[in-house]
Every structure is written in C-alpha cells, then in structure tokens.
C-alpha cells in the first residue's frame, strides 16, 4: 500500500487519484459526496462494545451511509476446528461468545451428539437447561447495563454486575470458571450440582424478580431514556427476513420465533414458558422484550430446579479423547441470547472434523445496521447499535 | 404454506442434479438439493417469497471443488433446507444472492476471504474478516491428500440422482488423455 495518507479532516479527496486512509476508508469515501464528512467510529470507540469499526458518512449530525468493518477480533475458530479433535475443540466454544458461552457449548456438543446418535441422560438435560438459562439471564443483564451506559446512564451497569456476579457464583460451582464456561461434554455435562448450587439458584429467582421491578422504576420508565429509544431504529419482519436476523430483534418485530420452541432440542418441550413477542419493533421494544425474556428464563429455571430427576449426568460410554466422529453432516441450532446459534459440522470419519461452520446470530444481526442507521442522527445510531446486543468476538469468530 | 413435496418438485424442475430428503434429528435438514449455479437465483427468489430466510453460507473445500451450501429456514414453518452449488475450476465462481437476501453480502464476502470463491454480483466485494492488506492465497487445505471427496462425506444421505451422467463424472472423473 504505497502513498498512505491520513484522511483529511473533512473527508474530501483533493486529488481523485490519491489514496485516503486505509483501503476501507478509501473505498467508502469514493462514493461520498463532496460536502460530507467521512468518520470512523472505532475500532476503539468505547460505545462500540469490543473492537468494532464503523465507517459513516455524515451530513451534519445525520448519517447518510454506514459500513461496519469487521475482523479485528477474528480468531479463526473454524480453521482451528479442522486441526483439533472434537474433544479439544470444546474450550473454543466457551470463547466465541463470552456473554452466553453455554449456548455455544450446547450448539457444538449438540451437533456432535446428533451426528453420532448419542442420547443424553435426563438429569444432564435438566442441568443443561438450568445452566443455559442462568447464563442467558447474565447475558441479558450485561447487555442491559451496557446499553443504558451507551445512552449516558452510568449507574445501572453497577446493578447489572451485582446480579451477574451472583449468577457467576452459581455457575462457578459447576463450571469452575466465571467467563469462558465449558460445561458441556459429549453425552452429558462435566459436573453435578450440589446443595449450594440448588440453594443459591432457588434464592436467586425471587431476588431477581424483585430487582426487575426496581429496573423498571429506575430505567424503563425514565422519560429521558424512553425519548432516546421510542421510534428509533424500527426493524420490521421484512428487514429481519432479508438479513437473517433472529432472536430478540425478530421477536420484537412481532414474530414469536424461538428455536427452543420452534425447533425443539433438549427437554424444553417439558416446560411451560411464554415466548415474549413485541411490543414494538423500535429500540424501546427490543429493550422491553429482553427484560421480558429474563422473566421467561426465570420461569424455566424455577420449573427445572423443582423437578430435576436423579440419575447420572453423563452416559456410561461417553466419547473419550480419541473419539472419532462418524462421517456425515449435521446442522444443529440452539437459541442463544442474541438469536439462533448454529453449528454446521461435516466429518469425513477422521480424527478431526472436516469442516465446521459457526453461524453467529450477531453476524446477521449486525449486517442490517447499515440499512437501519441510514438517515438517523449519530446519537440514535449508537442507540440502535446498542439495541442489537452485539458481542464482537462472536461476530468475528 | 409450502409443503416439502412441492419444494422438492420445484428444485427438480429447476434442473437439480441431486435431491435428498434427510433425517432431521440426525442431520438437521429436511431437504437439500445440489443445483446448477444458474438455477440458484431463481430458486432463492422463490424461497424468499415463501417466507424463508438465509441462515448462512457454508463453503466446503473438497477434491472436486468448492461446495457452497446455503442454509435456509422458514420463520413460519421451521424446517431447514439446503441448496448446494459446486464451484469448480481455477477461478471458482457462483452468482451472488445479495440482491435477494441482503444478509448474503457478508456471508459471501467471508466465503471469498477464506475460500477464494468469487460471488458474482456482490455489491461490495471487499475483504470482510481477513485484513484489508492480506497478501496471498486464501488459507485453504494445501495438501491434496487432505481433501475429501464430496461423495465420500455422507452429505447426501440417500440421494435421488437426477443427472446420472453428471454424477458418474463427479465420482469417476474422466481425465484428459485417458
């Protein structure tokens, strides 16, 4: 790349043959009008959650065009899968999405189990559901705090962390870690729960229900907060379909599509729970929907912890370290905190999987940002970005 | 509501080379079809009209070329489908689905980064995940012995082979000078 020039402060190219910024900026600014400013949001902007970069063309405070630039957190998980045995790859799944790692545990372990025809003991299925839902709540709460912070309210994230620490205390008993959880094993889970786990979980459910009321009083009904979100960034079903958006974005758009209900896996069909849907497809609707989903997860955990059966937590002949997958292909999907998490696994019967493709919900959800941000104020675009609940390591994989 | 039978019929009409029904519990797919590249756009448009969305684009590097798999799911009637296109030759290329499913733009750019498959008509064919100044060939499996044959990977379950001559050539390619 010869002749590297810093983009001039107004994004105007003096000479059409010159090269401005890096290749993305150069390409992006070639389509820019002469009276606009091309800006980079990130890759270190504090309100972009991790290392996301977005190029925007601004006319005053309004965004004319936006283009996310990815790859700053790419760790080639898919390539790693080709040189790791199925066992060795499990820890990677705790690291794709650091807020809801249990969903990735499940997607990968589930894909291997489906392909190999492994059945999971009933108790392990319950433990999977309890851990996955606890982790989903932690993910949603973390989003809640970070989102409100994006909009200028710094205090709520401290409350969110308080709940999140409680969940981490619970999950640490069985997983041994607080961030990159690797709890699932082929044919079951790694550790059984103890009395303390049960007690803390039982205590946590009524505690969080009370706290959710405080969240409503503190943030949800705050008029400044509502004005920042109501009517901002509408995303309808057509947009979701064109971009493959799933999870809370799709459900806020009015469609009660949830992998747990629509493509059942595990024992979710044994529990009674609502799939919250709506109330509106703007940023405020997505906010309300995620808080409602915390309630759904609490309902599931409450039923599961009351009815958990005794028995083994792993099948007797669970695959060992030298396990070889049978040849074939499978696509297994679970509902993660951000949408449908999918693992496309192809095996040639060898030591390592032949190919693994990870379908990250955040990737599809972020891809609609350029269209959703068109014509909005920069401050509103930050609200829209926050309402997508992005985890960049998952987007970049 | 679109039944799987009518979709299978539509795939066959469009000139599918191989069509298969799958065991959903094991393979996570209801129906898949290997189609010629020129039938892709029209079939994708049809699926969009029936309420399907594009989940992802997964590329498989095999001995015969690059097998591009498009996974679709319907929000109305969940049941995953796969359309597959085999891109062969020195400059593998398939048509872009970005004009139909906008989300395809990113999936295709990622596919081009890692597999070097060109998606003709992609509105923004820039690198996406790899660095902008990445030099050299895509990070593929280098050793020919490390490549599996797509017919040996068990991708097709019990296939209905609709173009027997094509399939025969795929499994036992006629080499130049034989």
Short summary of the structure?
Chain A has a single domain (77-359), classed as Cytochrome-c3 Hydrogenase, chain B (Orthogonal Bundle). Chain A is built from 16 helices and eight strands. Chain A has helices at residues 23-30, 77-81, 86-93, 101-116, 122-150, 156-175, 195-220, 223-229, 237-243, 248-252, 259-262, 283-306, 361-367, 369-373, 378-387, 392-396; strands at 37-41, 53-59, 62-69, 184-185, 188-189, 328-336, 339-347, 355-359.
Draw up the topology in text.
The complex is a heterodimer of chains A (397) and B (178).
Chain A: H1 23-30, E1 37-41, E2 53-59, E3 62-69, H2 77-81, H3 86-93, H4 101-116, H5 122-150, H6 156-175, E4 184-185, E5 188-189, H7 195-220, H8 223-229, H9 237-243, H10 248-252, H11 259-262, H12 283-306, E6 328-336, E7 339-347, E8 355-359, H13 361-367, H14 369-373, H15 378-387, H16 392-396
Antiparallel strand pairs in A: 1-2, 2-3, 4-5, 6-7, 7-8
Helix pairs in contact in A: 3-4, 4-5, 5-6, 5-12, 5-15, 6-7, 7-12
Chain B: H1 4-13, E1 18-21, H2 24-27, E2 31-34, H3 40-49, E3 52-62, E4 65-74, E5 81-87, E6 93-95, H4 104-115, E7 118-120, E8 160-161, H5 164-171
Parallel strand pairs in B: 2-5, 6-7
Antiparallel strand pairs in B: 1-2, 1-8, 3-4, 4-5
Overview of the structural elements:
The complex is a heterodimer of chains A (397) and B (178). Chain A is 47% helix and 12% strand. Chain A is α+β, with helices and mostly antiparallel strands and 397 residues long. Chain B contains five helices and eight strands. Chain B has helices spanning 4-13, 24-27, 40-49, 104-115, 164-171; strands at residues 18-21, 31-34, 52-62, 65-74, 81-87, 93-95, 118-120, 160-161. In chain B, the strands form two sheets. Chain B has a six-stranded mixed β-sheet. Chain B has a two-stranded parallel sheet with strand order 6-7. In chain B, strand 3 (52-62) and strand 4 form a beta hairpin. Chain B is globular and about 45 Å long. Chains A and B meet through helix 1, helix 4, helix 9, strand 6 and strand 7 of A and helix 2, strand 3, strand 4 and helix 4 of B.
